[in-house]
Structure formats: structure tokens, C-alpha cells
Amino acid sequence: MDNLKNTEKVLGALLIGVAVGGILGVLFAPAKGSDTRNRITSKGDDVKNAFSERVNEFLEKINGDLQMVKTRASEIMEDQMDGKSKLSS
Fold this sequence. Notes:
Helices cover 93% and strands 0% of the residues. By secondary structure, it is mostly helical.
């Protein structure tokens, strides 16, 4: 569980750093206002897409872990039921 929290913190910090760095880089570059706005929009889209991708990867990992837990819990229950039926035979 701690690993999950650490991953979330690192992911959040990374995305914030990318967003801030991209915006600052565009704002301080010499260009026309319309070009700057287009670059900011483009960077915003890039950050949004990167964030969505990371969230999807994270959710896929969680889903895989959840399926593994469900499978293991089912196996344990089956083992318990087999043990009870052997005792009653």
C-alpha cells in the first residue's frame, strides 16, 4: 500500500513538473502571442494525454492486482471447502 502511495506522489510530481516546465519554456521563448497561445494549448494537450496514459496504466495494474487477489481468495476458499468435505467423509 505504501508503494502505491509513493507511485501516486511521484506520478503527480512528474506531471506537475512537466506542465510547469512546458509552460515556462513557452512563455519565455521569443514568439508572437498567437504562437505562444498555440504552444501552450499544445503543451496542455500533451500533459493531458500523458496524464490519461499514466492513469490508464495505473488502473490496469490495479485491475491486474485485484484479479490476482480474487483468484487467490477463490483458491483459498476452495482449499478450505475441500478440507471440510474431507473431514466430514
